[in-house]
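Inverse folding, one chain.
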């Protein structure tokens, strides 16, 4: 890699990591190309990125970001998963670690704070931002639906009362 390519790599990675909510650092040694491609696809499908990194360049990119505390995790064959959605990289990484023994999560960061594997596992259990938004919209719509159904009930009762009265009058005639 040429010096200019290294500078571009560091700048691009620094920009992407600065806008990420969470970063998961893992060792991937022993994964096949197909397994790595499957992991990348799962990450993309969930709105996250997975990238095999050069440790020295990644440490340089982390230096001026809120995530500089995880620089010590970069030793050996490391890769990072990151996203603006704090749960997406954790969910995919934890799921992938359960499926493949050659993939090991070694740590990560959430909102600039270094987190251990136990917290990564907790993040993986939380609902995604899209799921939370869906629940919130459902909660906001529920009162409007209840009001609409309540206002329809008296009209329906009045219609049934009038129908019963007209049937009564017809029978008496």
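Residues assigned per position:
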């Amino acid at each position: 890699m040429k010096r200019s390519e290294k500078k571009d790599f560091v700048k691009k990675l620094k920009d992407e990591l600065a806008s990420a909510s969470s970063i998961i650092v893992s060792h991937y040694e022993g994964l096949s190309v197909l397994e790595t491609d499957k992991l990348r696809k799962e990450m993309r499908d969930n709105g996250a990125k997975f990238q095999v990194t050069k440790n020295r360049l990644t440490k340089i990119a982390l230096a001026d970001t809120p995530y500089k505390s995880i620089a010590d995790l970069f030793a050996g064959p490391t890769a990072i998963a990151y996203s603006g959605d704090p749960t997406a990289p954790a969910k995919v990484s934890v799921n992938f670690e359960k499926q493949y023994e050659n993939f090991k999560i070694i740590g990560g960061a959430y909102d600039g704070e270094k987190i251990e594997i136990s917290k990564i596992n907790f993040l993986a259990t939380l609902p995604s931002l899209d799921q939370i938004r869906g629940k919130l919209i459902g909660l906001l719509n529920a009162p409007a639906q209840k009001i609409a159904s309540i206002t329809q009930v008296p009209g329906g009762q009045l219609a049934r009362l009038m129908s019963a009265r007209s049937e009564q009058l017809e029978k008496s005639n």
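Helices lie at 3-18, 33-45, 55-62, 88-99, 117-125, 129-172. The chain has a mean pLDDT of 86.
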